[in-house]
Amino acid sequence: MHDRVDGSEAARWLSGLGDALARADVDATLALFHDDCYWRDFVAFTWNVKTVEGKAALADMLRRTLAHTTPSGWQITDAETVSPTETRLWFTFTTAVGKGLGIATLHDGRCRSILTTLQSLDGHEEASGPTRPLGVRHGADRNRTTWAEARAAELSGFETGQDPYCLIIGGGQGGIMLGARLRQLNVPTLIVEKNPRPGDSWRNRYRSLVLHDPVWYDHLPYIPFPEHWPVFTPKDKMGDWLEMYAKVMELVYWGGTECVSARFDESEQRWTVELLRDGRPVTLRPTQLVFATGAYGPPKRLQLAGQEDFRGEVLHSSQYSDGSGYAGKKVVVIGAASSGHDVSVDLWEAGAEVTMIQRSPTTVVRSETLMKFAFDIYSEEAVAQGIDVDTADLMAAATPFALLPPSQKALYDRIREYDADFYRQLEEAGFLLDFGPDETGLMMKAYRTGSGYYIDVGASQLIIDGHIRIKAGVEIDHLTPSGVAFSDGSEIEADVIIQSTGFHSMHEVVAQIVDRRTADRIGPCWGLGSGTRNDPGPWHGELRNMYKPVAQQNLWFHGGNLALSRFFSKFLALQIKARQEGLAGPIYGGP
After folding, report:
1. CB of 189 closer than 8 Å to CB of 305
2. 54, 279, 362, 520: least buried by Cβ within 10 Å?
3. What's the half-sphere exposure (Cβ side, CA atoms, 13 Å) at 427?
4. Where in this chain does the record put each SnoaL-like domain (predicted)?
5. What is the rounded CA–CA span in Å between residue 234 and residue 230?
6. Burial (0-12, 13-18, 19+ Cβ within 10 Å), 51
7. Cβ neighbours of 36 (radius 10 Å)
8. Which helix (H) or strand (E) holds 461?
9. Three-class DSSP category at 59
10. HSE-CB for 122 with a 13 A CA cutoff
């Protein structure tokens, strides 16, 4: 995407960094950085997912981590010009326990931001390519165990007294990807999921659902989607892919299994987990426990005055799967973010009369426009230039969250100008638009709150044309026997009310399964601490409690969209493997 450069200046900078770090000369290291510098580290130095900002914070991080990290072997692998004053260099390095990969961005010869990532643990590398397993032991052997026999024994092992080292609660995309990473690292892992089959979490959703992100952004680790795969994946096709993936990656996956409770034994450093598998109680004692229940926790349900008087049906969008039973009915959808739009379209296609109640403004971006302006490194053009998904992920991660708002604001200024007529028509239809409290658009809303946005794949035109009615900017006062009454005295008749009102934080699942005290000690997941609406400070610089150590030992959170689950599953798996092998160093900047 950018021009390659000589790299001599970048190589000199990297050599200077390596020499200063080898001497543990923090002052010499700081001289290589701008005052407003950022060091983003995934496990390599901090044994955390952590960004430090400014020279004082950088100095503290180095003084506390260099002794056990002992970084060395810094080698530049590529350099490119990003702008007349900016150079991006790629490099490799080693630590006391493994190999790393990083990206640094230089402005006028000094570093503005650097990303360091641990990629593998020495002696515990993934077997792939030239180190792949042979798959057979040649020669005659009366005691031979075939692959099928070994696999059957593995699948039954946790049923016959063995305990997994890691238990993953949640068998959707996040749990499956993490399970695949852990298997490649030889970590005994069990995934438990309420639904019967892998992929059911997608299959069970409303019939018209299609992924809003393009295929180049959504690959799973190890097995990318084939080249004939559609740009936007239908939900049932995604479900089938996940089921295939779980089988081919040889995961141990218990469907039809509910986690009832979990208790941590401080003395033994293990969990006691009570499960119900197809209604039968099972007790396991894993060392590590991962909550991979999506990006969210339990559904948020509104307690509406007069609900007991309403003669119709009230349900949450998480309970909605098919609009065919609502044909000809008057349906009110409360909520105007992604699920509210998608449910409304599905209902309209089924023949329902739909009104969307919009309680706060929504950021809307047309899918075509997002593809045109925002997915340059995740595209067919990027692949043609040699930028595969792993390279694109690192390129995206090289920009710390604190530096994203200016570029995102510039992107959405461009989008608003490009689609000005579209936005005018939406507003004329009564829809309330916004682009975030600082005009930074959809992506920053996704990171800060995971809510308040919609990638338009058809609902907006139905709103513009009046097929989906909008009631915006007026508070619900109460429900009547026949509908919804508002604070302005108006009323909408309804046979059905669907609450597309979002979900609580993932730590609320911990409250249900472990206990309230542990959940409160951990605190909410997701968000950056931006100080904007629904994302209170202080500033974290990374997603709260995700993919890293939390206030409860041996407990982790994993989730997010396909891209985040794919990328961060690598670093969470490395943290868990390092603990299994006794290789993990002190956590810097932890809970």
Report:
1. no
2. 279
3. 11
4. 19-100
5. 9
6. buried
7. 12
8. helix 459-464
9. helix
10. 10
Interstrand relation of 468-472 and 353-358 (parallel, antiparallel or unpaired): parallel
3-state secondary structure of 289: strand
199-216 pLDDT, tens digit per residue, is 999 999 888 888 989 999
Task: Return the amino acid letter for 300.
Answer: K
Q: Has residue 1 got a pLDDT over 60?
A: no
Q: Can you tell me whether residue 241 is helix, strand or coil?
A: helix
Instruction: Collect all residues with Cβ–Cβ distance below 8 Å to 565 and sequence separation of at least 6.
Output: 173, 174, 177, 178, 558, 559
What is the residue whose two structure tokens read 């990969």?
Answer: 101
- Cα separation, 569 vs 574, whole angstroms: 9
Beta-carbon-side half-sphere exposure of residue 302 (alpha carbons within 13 Å): 22
SS3 232: coil
Alpha-carbon distance of 302 to 397, in angstroms, equals 37
Tell me the three state secondary structure of residue 334. Answer: strand
Q: For residue 574, count other CB atoms closer than 10 A to its CB.
A: 27
Token pair listed for 196 = 């019967």
CA 13 from centre of chain: 33
Q: What's 561's DSSP letter?
A: S
Rounded-to-integer distance, Cα 277 and Cα 512, Å: 18
pTM above 0.85, yes or no: yes
Output DSSP code: residue 244.
H
Q: What is the pLDDT of residue 5?
A: 60
